[in-house]
Amino acid sequence: MPAGRHPKTQPGDSPRYRQILDALLARIEHGIYPVGGHVPTEGELCREFEASRYTIRAALARLVEHGMVERRPGAGTVVLASRSRRAYQQSIASLSDLFQYALDTHVEIRASTLVTLDAATAAMLGAREGDRWLQVDSVRWTERGGTPICCTSSFLPERLAWIGPELPGCVGPFYAHIEARAGEPIVRATQEIRAEPMPAHLRPLLDERADAIALCLIRHYFSAVGSVICSFNWHPAASFSYRMEIERRG
Fold it and tell me: Cα–Cα distance between 157 and 220 in angstroms, integer?
């Protein structure tokens, strides 16, 4: 594979691993790395792109998430498909991983409304029926113009509703912007995953059938004051997987 020199990241450019990922995606899509063939080794890519092994691994990990390659012990990185597969895998081990997830995807806010909680929603939020919260509905993509990977309804308590109009322009996850603006550092976060029928109003957005099943990831962030934001993230079950790695310590 002929290798040219690739300029290093300049201020304002996309992250270095993203530039390398885009180059590798283009080569796979154009058959330079054919299906059944191999992507160059980490060492070869490090030399070509003048990048660290950590950066190369980050780019290769995204190719795995796209379903385009598979990393096989002793066999290298094998090309599985010339186009990105729809399946989306999310691997989260810390709040910093959630921050990177927000940077790697695109979000569009569809609606923002101050609502009065009914009994069911209040129970899920750990709030009281009749309380007023800001509901922010959004859609997220890996690539603009494609099929969304999830639809999200986020809820902010009324004391933080003034931050809502700033969310369309924020960079990174909503929780990070809210904690910075409110001066309430996140001290705890919970996550729950449920398998449920896809809500009817979300099916057209996610291109799903009437009998589709969704995975709903409910993330709730807390400061020392109380709830900061709770988000309900609806993913098509057939095209989403969630990976968690746990190490034994001590």
Answer: 12
For the chain, what is the mean pLDDT? 81
* pTM for this prediction: 0.60
CATH topology of domain 90-241: Chorismate lyase (3.40.1410)
Give the pLDDT confidence of 12-33 residue by residue, as tens digits. 456 788 889 889 999 998 999 9
Q: Which segment of 41-45, 80-84, 206-210, 211-215 scores lowest on mean pLDDT?
A: 206-210
Q: Tell me which CATH code domain 16-79 carries.
A: 1.10.10.10
Q: Tokens at residue 199, please?
A: 């809500």
| Structure-token pair, residue 43 | 């060492």
H or E stretch covering 18:
helix 16-29
Rounded to whole angstroms, how far apart are CA atoms 111 and 70? 39
d(CA 134, CA 49): 45
